[in-house]
Each structure stands twice: as C-alpha cells, then as structure tokens.
Amino acid sequence: MKVRVDPDKCQGHNRCYSLAPELFDVDDYGYATAAGDGTVPAELVGKAKLAAANCPEFAVIIDDEG
Amino acid sequence: MAAADARPPVEDWATDYDIFDPSYCSDPGPIWADLRDRCPIAHSERWGGSWLPTRYDDVAEMARLVPALSSVEFIVVPPVPLRDPETGEVLRARPYAPPISSDPPFHGVARRLILPAFSPQAVAAHEPYTRELAHRLIDGFVGEGGCDGAVDFAQQIPPRVIAHLMGLDENRGDDFIQWVRGILELGATDPELRVATGLKMFAFWAEEIAKRRAQPGDARGSGGVPHGDFISWLLAGDLDGQPVDDNHAMSVCNLLLIAGIDTTWSSIGSALWHLATHPDDRQRLVDEPELLPTAVEEFLRVYSPVTMGRLATEDVTVDGVTIPAGSRVLMNFPAANRDPGQFPDPDTVVIDRAHNRHVAFGIGIHRCAGSNLARMEMQVALSVFLERIPEFHLADTRGPHLPPGTPDPTVIWAGGQVRGPRTLPLTFSTAH
Ligand code: HEM
Ligand code: SF4
After folding, report:
1. Of the candidates A41, B168, B295, B298, which lies 20 to 30 Å from B355 by C-alpha distance?
2. Domain spanning B62-310+356-395+410-427 has what CATH number?
C-alpha cells in the first residue's frame, strides 16, 4: 500500500500529520506530502486509512495495489 | 441585550431564523435538524437578511464557490463603516482583514505571509508556555471548590497565548478579551460598540508597529518565528515581491487577535461544559488520556464555534436553491458537522470517533490558519484541567436536562458568529 497527498486539494488541515506523523511530512506552510516514497508499512495500514478518512479535503489518497 | 429581547419571536425558522435568539445560541441542534429535512437552505430577513445552509455537502460546495461567494464580507451581519471620530471621514467601508477578507489571487499571497508562524512545528514552541499558564490559572481557584470554567479558565488562555506568540504584553490579556467581545460578541448586535472598539484596536496596533519600525526586533525567517519577534518578522515579510505596509500589518495583527481568541476560548469552554455534564466521558478521558486528541476533534465537531459570512457576487444555485447576487450567505460549518448523512449519530459526542471529516476550521482555501495553534491550546488546557481536577460538575445540574429551547439558568451561551459558553459555574472537591 502507498499513500500520497493531492497537492491541489490539500489545504493544510494537518489532520493526516497529527494522526499518522510516521507517514506524512508537513512543510513550513502546513501543506502535507507523503513521507519518503509513500510506502505504508503493514503495521501502519490502519493509520493510513484513518488519515484518509479524516482529511476534510479528500486530499489523502491510498493506492492499494502492491 | 434589551434590543435582542425586544425582537418578535421566531414564527418559522425556515423563513425567519434569528441567529442571535437565545434558543439558537444555547441549543441549535434541533433547529438545524428540522431545517435540514424541510428547508436545507433557509432564508431570513433578520439582521440585514441572509441565507443559512444546514447540509454538509451544501456547505462544502459553497466554500468552493470562490469568488461567486466572496469573502469581502465575512461577518454574519452587515458591516458598519469605520469613521474617523473627528472628521467623520470613512476609514474603512467594511472590515479589511487579509487573508480572511480576501478572494484569490490576493488571498493566497496574504495567507502565505502568515502560515509559517502557525505550522505544527512553530506551534509546538508555544506549548510549554501554554501548559505553565493553564497550571497558573488552576492554582488560582483549585482551593476554592468551584470556578467559572468560562471566565476563570477558558477565556484566560487564548489571549495570553496569542500575546505570547505575537510578542505583546501578556498583562494586556483583559483588554484583549474586552476588545474581542466588543467586536464579535456584544458588537455583533451593537454597531456603535463595534466601531468604537475597532478604533481602539487600530490605535494600539499603530503604536506596536511604529515601535518595531523604529527599532526592529529579531525577525527570523520561516520556521524560526517563535523565537523571534512576530511583528518584526511580519514587517520584514513580502507580499509577492511587495513590502508589507503598515495598513496590511495592522489588519493582519487585528485579525489574528480577534480570530485567535473568541473561537478558541469558546471551544475550550464547550468541551468543559460537555465534560461537566457527561461524567462517563470525563472519567474515560481521565483513565485513557491518549484519547484526548481524538476527543478534541469530536468536541470541535459537535460544538463547532464558528459561522462565517460570504457575499454572493452573482446569482448562485446550490441544492436547487438560487441565492441572488448581493445576498449574505452564512457558512454554517457547525450545522454541517451535525449532518447525519456525514456523521452517524451526529448529535452524540463519541470521544473515540474514528471517522471525523469535520469542518469546524472551515474547508477549502480559507481553512483556519490557526488550526494547529487552536488544537494545541485545547489539548493542553483540557489535559491540565483533567489532571488537576479529575472530577467536576455543573454548579446547577438542571442545565443539560432542560428541554431544547429552554434557556439554561446558569450557563449562558453566546452565538451568531462564534458560539460558546460565557458563564460556566463548576463545582469540585477541594481535595485535589
Ligand atoms: C477552535 C478555534 C478556532 C476555530 C473553530 C476557527 C475557525 C475558523 C474558520 C471556520 C475559518 C474559516 C473562515 C472562512 O471560511 O471564511 C477560520 C479562518 C481563520 N482563522 Fe481560525 N479558528 C480558530 C482559532 C484560530 C486561531 C487560534 C487563529 C490564530 C491566531 C486563527 C486564525 C485564523 C485565520 C488567520 C483565518 C483566515 C484564513 C484564511 O482566510 O485563509 N483561528 N478559522
Ligand atoms: S489532512 Fe488533508 S488537507 Fe490536511 S494536511 Fe493532510 S492532506 Fe492536507
């Protein structure tokens, strides 16, 4: 599983970062990106789904294949 | 509130709603539920006339209709011109408070100027101060067996934290509280007070800015703001290549003080009200403090304090309703957060609710710039309170059991633009 942030939708609510700091980075302006290449380790799959389900802008995207 | 009391009672909320009616301030949930079913975008001629959506999807769609729904008029009542008290000259026809009053493209420019001061990293630097402040406030009343949770605690935190962040004198906290109430709360229904308060605030900012122009403080770059002087940093910033002039700086400072105080104190107060009236939730947070971050999001959802205004610059049609150009629209984030289509069992606080796409901080380009700061303040305030006073109750326990619409005898809620308890008498044992 991989996670990414749609930069056109992200408004910097930082819900993703506070729920799953392991999976997201936040820049000086509060906008989020996936940490590293976005690969979600098995033990963080739940947190990745939680981040996606709490982003008010629907900006957290989960790619399930692989 | 003589003027408010003199208004005729609301006949039908769908055509005649009154956002300052005491029943709407103290318990709007049943009113929204009724409107959402039969008239999801209501209209009223009161307070200058406005439109009121109650569905999540409608509010989200409206937030994206930029600039058809413009932010130039962002308060929930018609603006009053700010005049020079001596000459009568109009200084401002309507409040100017970038980025909250701006539309694109300038909105993004004004927003980027301030965002670095409010990133999660920047905000974390103010946490120790906030914690120490919360303890200091509790030291003041813990031995007395009771306090006013709104006045003695919730209200005292945000003005001092924002003063700390902006490099202002913390001892002016009481002035800041008075100013913000003069603009947002009491001033909402009293235009003269709003203007008088606005003039006082501008005089204050003019002085603070002149001081820094004459002798700039340490204006560190992005990320380093918390350790530098905020106003000096702001003055050294740039707006898409243009310098920050006094007018812009003053307007931003004014906005941050106003937006950062009433809102956050309301949400701390609402959360304390909830915990005082729901002993199971209180005990659960005492036993499982790791739930606090999730609980804070849930308090923000159910007790969302902020409703914003928009001005329709053209006719817009949402959910089958056409809102004519020139209308005021109320961005009802609080009602969106109670929509059963988005949140199962929406009126119940579920402190471990996992799926919570709430819009208490707005949605789209105007997302609250201070949301990380507000969350930090709420978490610190509530965790320190629960740690020091793990058991507390409303002084008058009739409050939560009154039928909807009955004004609570002891807890007084303000509403309109910002909803929250303004008095909250609590009792607790002095054994702590
Ligand atoms: C619980 C507390 C708070 C709540 C519920 C809240 C809510 C909101 C909402 C709903 C908006 C969107 C406005 C719109 O759509 O027109 C907003 C914008 C804003 N808030 Fe907050 N706010 C809170 C605390 C703060 C704090 C602590 C600050 C910082 C000092 C702050 C600064 C701002 C600013 C600067 C904007 C304008 C952003 C823009 O237009 O781009 N707020 N807030
Ligand atoms: S929660 Fe969504 S909008 Fe907020 S920072 Fe994360 S991706 Fe961006």
Report:
1. A41
2. 1.10.630.10
